[in-house]
UniProtKB/TrEMBL annotation:
Keyword terms of this UniProt record: Membrane, Transmembrane, Transmembrane helix
PANTHER family: MEMBRANE BOUND PREDICTED REDOX MODULATOR (PTHR30238), SLL1022 PROTEIN (PTHR30238:SF4)
Transmembrane segment boundaries: 12-35, 47-67, 140-159, 166-185, 205-224
Coiled coil: none
Main location: membrane
Protein name: Tellurium resistance protein TerC
Organism: Rhodoferax saidenbachensis
Pfam family, one: TerC
Length: 232
């Protein structure tokens, strides 16, 4: 019980919620597109069942990710992917990921579309959330993941539009979000089993690599964004 009152636990919960807002904001768009052709009286059911199925699937995927991250060098791979996801968040490529999502006038067809689309788009969420959970200790990782996802559901469904407007008005939110992914990448790499014999397993090293990861994402994000801009 004391673990649930500790600062690392609630810090990880906050990180998971922030990650799901930043990387899961598309979920609301996916749900809307998949359910747009349903009759009005079935739309609420489509949204609820599709969201429930997507969340359950994500919990299963994260459970596998948490297990795999115990294998040497896989945390390093996950950290590299997180750095790439963070850079992509700061400098998006502009591709429309929703153009191939087709709605349906059948309830379970729409639910299936939501779940399949969420599965395809959840790789970044799964890696980032698993990385955040590993920093809170091994005893309560899955309860932490489930709690963080449950808290983020209403934020994603009902607050995504507000969050998107805030991001448009205050782009610094996206910058901090990308740097958060870099921080998680650095701290996750520090705890890779392959590096435990090489790097000192101290808090200062953990925080130092977290800061390094955040700065790497910020720097690469700025460079990629500038290169993507058309010449004046």
């Amino acid at each position: 019980m004391e673990e649930f009152l500790s600062a690392p636990f609630w810090l990880a919960v906050g990180q998971i919620i922030m990650i799901d807002i930043l990387l899961g904001g598309d979920n609301a768009v996916v749900i809307a597109l998949a359910c747009r052709q349903l009759p009005a009286h079935l739309r609420v059911k489509g949204i609820l069942w599709g969201t429930a199925g997507a969340i359950i699937l994500r919990v299963v995927l994260i459970a596998f990710a948490l297990t795999l991250l115990q294998v040497p060098y896989l945390k390093l791979v996950g950290a590299a992917l997180l750095l790439w996801i963070g850079v992509k968040l700061l400098a998006p490529d502009g591709e429309d990921e929703h153009s191939n999502i087709n709605g349906s006038d059948k309830l379970w067809a729409a639910v299936k579309t939501v779940i399949v689309a969420d599965l395809v788009m959840s790789v970044d969420n799964v890696i980032a959330i698993a990385g955040a959970a590993t920093n809170a200790g091994s005893q309560h990782q899955m309860p932490l993941v489930i709690f963080g996802l449950l808290v983020s559901i209403p934020i994603i469904i009902w607050g995504s539009q507000l969050v998107l407007k805030l991001m448009d008005r205050f782009p610094v939110i996206i910058t901090f979000g990308g740097m958060l992914l870099g921080w998680i990448a650095g701290t996750m790499a520090h705890t890779d089993p392959a590096l435990k014999e090489i790097l000192p397993q101290t808090t200062s090293w953990n925080y130092g690599l977290g800061v390094l990861g955040a700065l790497v994402v910020l720097g690469l994000g700025i460079v990629v964004k500038r290169r993507a801009q058309p010449p004046a």
